[in-house]
Amino acid sequence: xxxxRIEPTVLDLLVVGAGPTxxxxxxxxxxxxxxxxxxxxxxxxxxxxxxxxFMRFFTTRDLLxxxxxxxxxxxxxxxxxQAIAYYQSVARAFELPLAVHEEVIEIQRxxxxxxxxxxxxxxxxxxxxxxxxxxxxxxxxxxxxxVEGEEQSWVSYRYLEPYAHFGMQVVVVGGGNSAAETALDxxxxxxxVTLVHRGETLKPSIxxxxxxxxxxxxxxxxxxxxxxxxxxxxxxxxxxxxxPDGRRRLPADAAYVLIGYTPEVDLMRRSxxxxxxxxxxxxFDLATCESNVPxxxxxxxxQAGRRTDKIFIENSRDHGARIVSHLRTRRLTxx
Length: 335
Fold this sequence. Notes:
Blueprint: E1 3-11, E2 13-16, H1 20-31, E3 36-40, H2 46-49, H3 80-93, E4 98-100, E5 103-110, E6 113-119, E7 123-129, E8 132-134, E9 155-156, E10 169-173, H4 177-188, E11 192-196, H5 211-219, E12 224-226, E13 230-234, E14 238-243, E15 246-251, E16 254-257, H6 266-270, E17 296-298, H7 319-334
Parallel strand pairs: 1-7, 2-3, 2-8, 3-4, 8-17, 9-16, 10-11, 10-16, 11-12
Antiparallel strand pairs: 5-6, 6-7, 13-14, 14-15
Helix pairs in contact: 1-7, 4-5
């Protein structure tokens, strides 16, 4: 039986999401002497843990820094492992209070406080807080194609590493950074790779050092590519596509569908945040990050709606400072 209780302590701020943006908010809250908590449905940095094992950031190390703590690594562009170690060190340095493996299922405003209810494996807990910051990101929701057979076990929406695919036929769906990087990594580690993309070419937004590498491998035939092509279904270890010259069936031991992510908006909507129906951009104040619900703040990629390519760590790491500054000003005004 799941136990249910209400936490007696009233927090100044509860941060939903314990990724880099949530950590940045927590660091600012600690500097301001606030009573706060970071809560996440998974572990600390769940999004980075799900990145490809050997991924390297496009962003330079100085632009990934949060809380005023230097990102002290020799590489100009850190890799995933270095980033995980860095953000863990920030959480440790600021002694951020964490509640991990708890999913927030409801946020209700009751007079001057928010009642935030979370669910863990064996307990349902309601916490009271004066303010809430949502920093849940989008990495939990990879986009689906909506075609038959895509839920089969050999079709994946996240890529970690290539080694299990040596000598195998692998289809990669997509034309952005993730798809190009995955195709190259698989090919260099002994897989026979076919890329399928609905566009005429690879996306122009691909990392500048990655794009010519992928284009050259395609041009020389090392990686087979079908452009202006769409996946119409997944059969028995084959991918059916609609290509310019008609339908084709591509043999596949494995397939990776890497076409981006969709922001999580259900919790925002249920909490009273107004969103544009088409773009999913929420209503919020750019200067303070406060949504149309007083005391409920939105940080990180949530602000961009479907345009998940517009906000990254480097241009959202100051959201914590904006939120905490606004809360401090409000507290001084009210006192």
